[in-house]
Amino acid sequence: MAARTEGVPVVPGDVLTVEGLSTSIRLRKSAVDVVKGVDLRLRPGETLGLVGESGSGKSMTGLSIMGLLPPGGHIAAGSIKLDGRELVGLPERQYQKVRGNEIAMVFQDPMTSLNPTKTIGEQVAEPIRLHLGATPKQARERALDMLALVGIARPAERMGNYPHQLSGGLRQRVMIAMALSCEPKVLIADEPTTALDVTVQAQVLRLLHDLKDRLGMAMLLITHDMGVIARWADRVSVMYAGGMVESATTDRLFAGMRHPYTQALLACTPRLTQRRESALFSIPGSPPDLEHPPAGCRFAARCAHATDRCEREAPALTEPAPGHTLACWHPVEGPLEPAARPVEAAPKAADDQAGPVLVADGLVKEYGTGRLSLRRSARAVNAVSGVSFAVRPGQTFGLVGESGCGKSTLARMIVALEKPTSGSVTALGGALGELRGRDLRRHRRNLQMMFQDSLDALDPRMRVGAILREPFEAQGIGTAAEQLAAIRELLDEVGLPHSALERYPHEFSGGQRQRIALARALALNPRVIVADEPVSALDVSVRSQVLNLMKRLQATHDLTYVVISHDLTVVRYIADIVGVMYLGKLVEVGSADDVYLRAVHPYTAGLIAAIPEPDPGAAEPAGGLDIGSELPSPLDPPSGCRFRTRCPRAQARCAEEEPVLLGFGPGHSAACHFPLREPQPAVPAG
Amino acid sequence: MTQYVLRRLVTSVIVVLGVSVITFMLLHGMSGSPGRAILGVQASAEAVAAFDREHGYDRSLIAQYLAYLGQLLQGDLGHSYKLNQSVNALLADNAGRTAMLAGVSLVLAVCVAVPLGVFQAVKRNSVGDNVLTTLTFVAYSMPVFLLAMLLIQVFALGLGILPAQASQSSSTFVIFTEPRAMLLPVLTLTGITVALYSRYQRSAALDQLAQDYIRVARAKGLSMRMVLTRHLLRNACLPLVTLIGMTIPLLLAGNLVVESVFNYPGLGLLFFNSLNNQDYPVLLGYTLVASVLTVLGNLLADLVVAVSDPRTQRA
Fold first, then answer.
1. Helix axis angle, A464-475 relative to A480-494, nearest 10°?
2. Cα gap A188→B234, rounded to integer Å
């Protein structure tokens, strides 16, 4: 639709040029244009960031370049040139010589991207034998070098390992070794760190960046994360609903964006500096259905600046300044001022005098590892080992930590879906461990849970009406008419139309489904809601809608939340009290300001430093806070302080003596022998 | 590993014991006196009672079962009064031919079903896939005897190119010495298993094709053929191995029908004849051997999966 008068001029020296690329996927009845008129240029040694939400066509652009479109997908128009050589229409046999050799790709999920029944060595050596004609021995040697190059310790030993024996971060390093083994000219990294923990993310991105410089490659970095873009990309192209809306150098784009979508996308990215009192910026609505694309600008329906013209006529890509391209009828000037929009209903200050509504006391959960399966010895994994905390009514307790630290197990114990091995949970004055059958069922009314993947958490064969009615039926509340009235009220509260009652979960977008999940959790008017990664599956613009909604509902219903997230910025926004977990232990607890501004545990400080801020000018994190390596196995936790193996401050004492929680201020405590600040012994820990 | 195998063997013994109890009770519950069955309807009541007393059939069921179990532990499966031979000898005589028929059919079925399933998965929803799906569905839902009759009708009675009866030779390797005479039984038995295996293989291959590592292999520059042979095949066959272990009873039951229809002297025919003659010791012996085979087959399948899937071996 973008009426183009001329293509992007091929500047000599560009290693990859994409012009007017349109890709469509045939469905049963229609064809969907997943990519529409995309232009890209990539110079050697350069990183181009391709940013957009899910469904924006950024991955399809990458797959188009690789010639690896899913079944039914084909390039409808445009050209892709590698060193001046046209790739569109290249016979499959010749394309195979390009893939993995001249253009390589790293995918998102390292857990599923390696063949489970082949050794690491075989898999890394495969492209070397294929493209460089190496003998098995030569390929093995080169594979070994590559594993060492991507920073894998003891590479010779790893060569014989199978993927399941490696952690996620190591697997992604193997993926990178595999992709770079033939020294490609272009590397396409599609969300390379989205499935990884924030500490590992920083390491992997630095590795990619260094290797790109060393090998003189060009890199196309596809991501949804403005923070990753700000730190690692030289230039940025923003995609929305299949089309390119804006491109510029990273500095220029972040400081002087012109497209309203770029502006909004940056504004709704949560930051560590986000003020808790003001609502997060969010983009209303959701991206258009590409099966029936709007006639005009695809962003018009969600744009604050849209006029009649935007809805009628698609804007063409223009170049308002050299190197800065834009497709918009009504450009804006630069980023949005940090709006001081108050939360619609200001949360009541938590009552300091009131007794806690939820108390966890010395919670321990041990799992036996599968005794009946092959070659496994019976050992216990300490998923949670001795966690205590208390939450007062109306407060939000945020729990952060890397994957595998036991935070989800803890959540399930809080709502009595899992029985603690020892320790107890007291909710609303009742000890959950002592409740049985009927009493426990009645107690559950006040304790509800929300899950990460709302598609998994909602029965696909139940209509939304039945899903929302179920809690009432389980507790035997109200007549059918009363239930229906209550359900309608719930839908109003979470901002869904009443017509939703008759539809099935898969007919809704991720954000809408999370609203349904929230309505279900709210149905019985509970006192406490435990939310396990409530927004991690959502796109950033929708994420802020859901977070704002959760905050508003907390104020109107006087809810107490326990919010679990690996995303520190989310917890920063929503939590009053923050607990940091490491390998089943709580290492630091304090108010959000205590933890984020005055962290005392080196782990907390390292986690915070690893978060990429969506600001190209942000200072590199201080070197001393780097958390090396990865989470040790919970099967065999380190002696003494469990964090010592990754801690930059660890000394002999840390291996011998387990640190206890010490007070660092009112309500602020941490367990560390060598904290970043001096403890205040006068103040009791708690 | 050895610990695992030992544990599985112990449970296997318990399962087989359970099977022996149930079949023993069922068979004896169906007909009051084995003496009547053996001596025939014309025999006098006194003669039957005398027979029962002589062979211990007048004792309680539990006493009879314990006596039978005592025999079993010595490796004695009993004596067939009808055929006047020990059950051990009867089974041993016929087992080889049946194993040959079932084994050859199984190997053929796997050789056909694996490529067929992978082909269908790669070309999913194409005309070829739909045609093959329809064919395998028809074969899958067809009773074994009907398939056998159809094949006889077409190839023996219609075209007259193959004999309608299997070879009557007592050689174990008759399949290889007289392939023409054995083609129809083998085809019938292969047909029913191919239908099941290929449908299974198709869905297993589809599951694997959707995995990211397949796309990664393509991104390395491998051709589709190399991706299939080097990466997909092994992973897509693991579920089939388990299925083969589970379908051993199906194969034995198929043998029963095929051997009866084609009059092939094997365990199936022996069982069929014993059923008509109410020859309980043979029926019991066959059932026990079949349950042992089933249990062992499953154990073997699990071991094969364990050996070929590194994820089940924790270092």
1. 120
2. 29
- Give the DSSP per-residue string, A3-21: --SS-----TT-SEEEEEE
| Distances from the Cα of B207 to the Cα of A441, A460, B24, B202, angstroms | 39, 20, 43, 9
Q: What's phi and psi for A583, nearest 5 deg? A: 45, 50
Per-residue pLDDT at A685: 44
pLDDT at A349 (0 to 100): 53
- pLDDT for residue A118: 92
Is B7 within 8 Å of A164 when comparing Cβ atoms?
no
Mean pLDDT to the nearest integer, A569-585? 91
Band (pLDDT 50/70/90 cuts) for residue A579 is very high
A275 vs A21: which has the higher pLDDT: A21
Inter-chain CB proximity A96 and B222 less than 8 Å: yes
ipTM of the complex: 0.81
- Of A17-26, A33-42, A549-558, B302-311, which range is least confident? B302-311
| Per-residue pLDDT at A639 | 87
Q: What is the pLDDT of residue B83?
A: 83
Please tell me the distance from the alpha carbon of residue B49 to that of residue B42, in angstroms, as a whole number. Answer: 14
Rounded distance between C-alpha atoms, residue A566 and residue B140, angstroms: 50
Note whether B309 contacts A117, CB cutoff 8 Å: yes
> Is B223 an interface residue toward A (CB < 8 Å)?
yes
Interface-testing mutation among A107, A115, A187, with chain B (most B C-beta atoms within 10 A): A115
Q: pLDDT tens, A157-199?
A: 899 999 988 888 889 999 999 999 999 999 999 999 888 888 8
Contact indicator for A400, A587 with CB cutoff of 8 Å:
no
> Could you tell me the two tokens for A110?
């390292």
Vertex B202: Cα angle to B198 and B204 (nearest 5): 115
**Percent of residues, chain B, with pLDDT higher than 90:** 22
Residue B217 distance to chain A (closest CA, Å) = 9
B212 CB near a chain A CB, below 8 Å? yes
Shortest CA gap B215–chain A (Å): 8
Structure tokens at A574: 């929503």
Query: What sign does the dihedral A248-A253-A255-A261 (CA atoms) show?
Result: positive
Mean pLDDT check: name the lowest of A489-498, A637-646, B24-33.
Answer: B24-33
Say if A100 is an interface residue toward chain B (CB within 8 Å): yes
* Distance from C-alpha of A665 to C-alpha of A594, rounded to nearest angstrom: 9
Chain A residues whose CB is inside 8 A of the B215 CB are: 68, 107, 113
Residue of chain A nearest B2, judged by CA positions: A375
Lowest pLDDT segment from A425-434, B127-136, B148-157: A425-434
- The tokens for B124 are 């999913």
Per the model's pLDDT, the better-predicted residue between A255 and B5 turns out to be A255
The torsion angle over the Cα atoms of residues A28, A297, A88 and B120, rounded to 10 degrees, is -20
Average pLDDT on A63-79 reads 92
A132 at the B interface (CB within 8 A)? no
Per-residue confidence (pLDDT) for residue A258, from 0 to 100: 93
Identify from A93, A146, A375, A377 which residue to disrupt to test chain B contact, counting B C-beta atoms within 10 A and taking the largest count. Answer: A375
Q: H or E element: which one contains A580?
A: strand A577-582
Q: Are B310 and A68 inside 8 Å of each other by CB? A: no
From chain B, pick out residues whose CB is under 8 angstroms from the CB of A60.
none
B26 in contact with A at a CB cutoff of 8 Å?
A: no
Contact flag A116-B220 (C-beta cutoff 8 Å) = no
Instruction: Write out the DSSP string of A198-210.
Output: HHHHHHHHHHHHH
Which stretches within A528-681 are classed as H helix? 540-557, 568-574, 592-597, 602-610, 652-656
Among candidates A610, A581, A575, A611, which has minimal Cα distance to A593? Answer: A575
Q: Which of A447, A471, A452 is nearest to A360 (CA)?
A: A447
